[in-house]
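Hey, can you fold this one?
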Amino acid sequence: QVHVVESGGGLVQAGGSLRLSCAASGHIFSIARTEWYRQAPGKERELVASATRRGVTNYADSVKGRFTISRDDSSNAAFLEMSSLKSEDTAVYYCALVRVATDVGVKDYWGQGTQVTVSS
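Sure. Predicted structure:
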């Protein structure tokens, strides 16, 4: 069983920065892709950023140039560096691990989310 836990959320003023972390525990052999999603109240969950094992990254247009995704495969961790935060970045942020290979197979895993609130 793989457990995914996000941390680093909180309250920040507009223009500020936050660093979200995603920690995965379990007998993990590899993680094909790491994704960060967010869901604001009353809105659908949206993909914010993704990073593959080979280092290919993608970002939603709304966060390009402000957010940076990274992975530390040695510790099965991932990060989302967020800067120049805006009120519209307020949401619950989720880490998703896609195609996680373990000793029992390949599966996707999600964390419970961490709240980011940007005050204007």
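The radius of gyration is 14 Å. Let me know if you want another pass with a different chain boundary.
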